[in-house]
Amino acid sequence: MASFRATGWDPLLIIAQIIALQAVFYLLISVLLLIALTLTGSDFILDAIFDDTAIRTDTAFGWTLALVWLVNNLVTIPAVVLLIQRARLVLDFVVTLHGIHILLVWSHTGHFPTKLAWWVLQVVDAIVITLGGEWACMRYEMEPILLGGAKKQQQQQQQQQQQQQGSSSDEGPLELEDEDQQQQQEMDAETWVHIKKRKTSDPVPKSNRKRDDDEPAPLTRVMGQAKNVLFQATNKQKYEQIPMKDVHNEPSSSSSSPATRH
Q: Locations of Basic and acidic residues compositional bias (predicted)?
């Protein structure tokens, strides 16, 4: 894309733009006329471009030239955007383009162009190029301007995306393994959350909980309680129930012994 200089008035740049636009305009019309005339079986001559009498409405050759000129207008719009790039300058350059073309036609034919069809075609050409060029230049001016750093970052991002796409195409099985690992981690996380919810929802405090291995079975617990009761009952009978004969015999024996001695 052409770049503008800092100063508002630059004659060298303006002259270069006029010459470039005029050259591109004639190059495009020459290529289109060469294709059209070759398809119709006619020879390519300069009168098809620089002769006002060639544009006629009563011959097929005249209508062919008019159609080629209209197509050339549409093809010239990108060249206007490329070389001018300012919507407010499009009209000046288009008028200059057709003014130079009138002078070249005058110099080639030797008389000032007077054909009505030719003038109508030139006016239509100027209107189409001006409107299309201004619209395209406005769209170009509204695009965001990227600085040097932003352009580099954008290029780096594009390169990274391309590398990632290339690596993804080469490492298909690795991606499947990564997906399996992610699914396993998600399942582990879900089970951990479920266990944590069960722990938090338990109403029994932690201090009163006992492990299932330490708690005795119900039958063992009942048998232990019965054993304790029997043990206490037997000890009570052994130490609290003393035979009365033993108690009465001891003092009698002690009292009889001194009597015999006397």
A: 237-249
A 10 A CB-CB count for 129 gives 25
Task: State the Cα–Cα distance between residues 262 and 257, nearest whole angstrom.
Answer: 9
In one-letter notation, the amino acid at residue 212 is: D
Q: CB under 8 Å to 4, separation ≥6 — which residues?
A: 13, 85, 86
Q: Give the domain ranges of the chain.
A: 13-142
User: ∠ CA 117-123-128 to the nearest 5 degrees?
Assistant: 125
pLDDT in tens, 18-71: 999 999 999 999 999 999 988 888 888 888 899 989 888 888 888 999 999 999
Residues 6+ apart with CB under 8 A from 113: 52, 102, 105, 106, 119
What is the distance between the alpha carbons of residues 169 and 148, in angstroms, rounded to a whole number? Answer: 32
Q: Which position has the token pair 């879900």?
A: 190
Main-chain phi, psi angles of 9, to 5 degrees: -120, 115
Question: Taking the CA atoms of the chain, what radius of gyration do you get in angstroms?
Answer: 56
What are 150's two structure tokens?
């932003």
Q: What confidence tens digit (pLDDT) does each residue in 131-171 have?
A: 999 998 888 878 766 555 555 667 777 777 777 776 655 55
86 Cβ contact partners less than 8 Å away, ≥ 6 residues apart: 4, 137, 141
How far is 68 from 33, CA to CA, in rounded Å? 6
Identity (one letter) of the amino acid at 48?
A
